[in-house]
Design a protein that fits this description.
Length: 86
């Protein structure tokens, strides 16, 4: 996740899209294998994709919480400044 934290929002969005397409491809492959009665040969890939998507969500959540904290701090500073001026 350390590397993901360094990426821009656009890069994370592109990576999410790639992982989303890969997840759908894997689900399709799994369904096809089940339909013809064979074992699916790549169950680990689905886990890696899921973990990657989860890591992106964590990073975006961290960024959102940091942004919200900054907004609250600015709003509090404005309220305190107004109260001190009055």
């Amino acid at each position: 996740m350390r590397e993901l934290r360094l990426k821009s929002f656009d890069d994370l969005h592109k990576l999410w899209h790639v992982l989303y397409k890969e997840r759908n491809l894997l689900i399709t492959e799994q369904a096809k294998a089940k339909h013809i009665g064979q074992n699916w040969k790549q169950p680990d890939r689905k886990t890696y994709v899921r973990r990657g998507m989860q890591a992106i969500r964590v990073v975006l959540g961290e960024r959102q919480r940091a942004t919200n904290a900054k907004k609250r701090a600015v709003a509090l500073a404005v309220v305190e400044a107004e109260a001190g001026a009055a």
